[in-house]
Amino acid sequence: MAQTILFKKVPLLSDLPRNELDYLAATLQIVNLAAGEVLFLEGQPGESLYIILEGQLQVLLALGTPDERQLAVFGPGEFIGEMSLLIPGRARTASVRAGKDSRLWKMTRADFDGLLIRQPKLAFTIVQTLTKRLDYTTTLSFHDLQEKNRQLQKAYDELKAAQLQIIEKERLEHELKVAAEIQMSILPYELPLAPGYAFGALMHPARMVGGDFYDIFALDGCRVGLVVGDVSDKGIPSAIFMARSHALIMAEAAHGGTPGEILRRVNSHLIKLGQSDQFVTVLLGVLDCESGKFDFARAGHELPMLLDADGAVHTLPHSTGQAIGIFEDLLLDENSIILPPGGTLLVFTDGLTDCRNPQGQSFGYAKVQSILTSLAGQDGQQVCDALRQALTEYQSGSPQDDDVTLVAIHSLKQ
After folding, report:
1. Could you tell me the end-to-end alpha-carbon distance of the chain, in angstroms, rounded to an integer?
2. What are the tens digits of pLDDT across the range 232-275?
């Protein structure tokens, strides 16, 4: 009696006569499922229809895979698996799992065929139900297709944007390469020859283009000019400011004057241009190859180091100096030294001393002095190369924070 009442709640069977319901209640098998238990799997042969009395069944595609997707949820009064009975030999098109503890009636093919023979009008009810499910499935498939199209369009748009970014990146890389080539072309291709002296130089930018520059150039008589500069910040803006500063220094040096007078004229030009908030530290010097006298003006730049023939490192006389491009009334450190026979003067940018190892420790002045001591008697380029090698070993692969520029003058006189 109780099962007959339950059958009345099933829309598929609710119009059946009482005696038929009693018969089904007495003959159909009861199936109990715990929550999470699988009733049948996608692809398995189907031989039964299930009517839900209690609980909940989930219809799933690709069960147990990363692509698992829930198609529908059925509750009490609904049935599932009918297509396997309507089309003999048809495999299950989806998996079914209990969403909650569930109680089902199992109707086999023999039960179903007997019911249709006894109650042929039931076929109309089944057709109506299948039509509704087909409409639901069509709608679900349509929305699913819309979502896939939306995701495909999104993926296409993202791919298109990525391609544009790649093109832009390649364009920027090409421009940076050209800028780096232009910057390197500003540096001297060959160092000048001067009787009794050997020069050395190198520059290693922290980025593709940098803000450091140097030059060694012949002047009138037996004099050689030397300049090393370090523009604030790095990158393309610094490289442009570097090129401007270098060009102004070389132009004013050609007009003559002391290193201090030349830098003051350059500073005046940069102040008048007033198109940048950048500045540049500079050391400009002139070597008299006959006397060994080196006159220099230092505009906020690192103080050079002097290595004598015996391996001792000396500090140059100095006073306060300001970077050019900031103040109209420029304060410069103007001094002179005599380069001793066999001695070496090292001019550098702060990228040398500030360079860090993987532990974050700076290379520092003391280490530079220690290495210089071991390089007594070597020519200018050997000194620069040895310092660069020591710096690379100290870095041990850690990123280079700043441009490194080295220029050395070595006296060959005895």
Report:
1. 125
2. 877 777 778 888 899 999 999 999 999 999 999 999 999 988 76
Question: In the numeric block, which tokens belong to residue 9?
Answer: 């709640």
Question: Tens of pLDDT along 78-97?
Answer: 888 877 777 777 788 889 99
Task: Name the band, by pLDDT with cuts 50, 70 and 90, for residue 170.
Answer: confident
Confidence bin at 410 (pLDDT 50/70/90): very high
Strands 223-231 and 305-307: unpaired
- Residue 246 CA: distances (Å) to CA of 120, 229, 307: 101, 8, 27
Distance CA 98, CA 303 (A): 81
Distances (CA, A) of 156 to 146, 170, 249: 15, 21, 53
Measured at the alpha carbon of residue 367, what is the angle toward residues 376 and 371, in degrees to the nearest 5? Answer: 20
- Distances in Å between the Cα of 105 and the Cα atoms of 16, 81, 98, 275 are 16, 12, 14, 87
Q: What is the DSSP letter of 396?
A: T
The C-alpha angle 8, 12, 18, rounded to 5 degrees, equals 40
In angstroms, how far is CA 95 from the centroid of its own chain?
A: 43
The Cα-based distances of 340 to 139, 141, 201, 222, 294 in angstroms read 94, 90, 20, 17, 11
137 pLDDT above the threshold of 70:
no
Residue 107 makes CB contacts below 8 A (sequence gap 6+) with 28, 48, 49, 50, 51, 85, 115
Average pLDDT, the chain: 86
Rounded to whole angstroms, the Cα distance separating 298 from 27 reads 107
Residue (of 334, 340, 316) closest to 257 by Cα position: 334
pTM score of the predicted model:
0.61
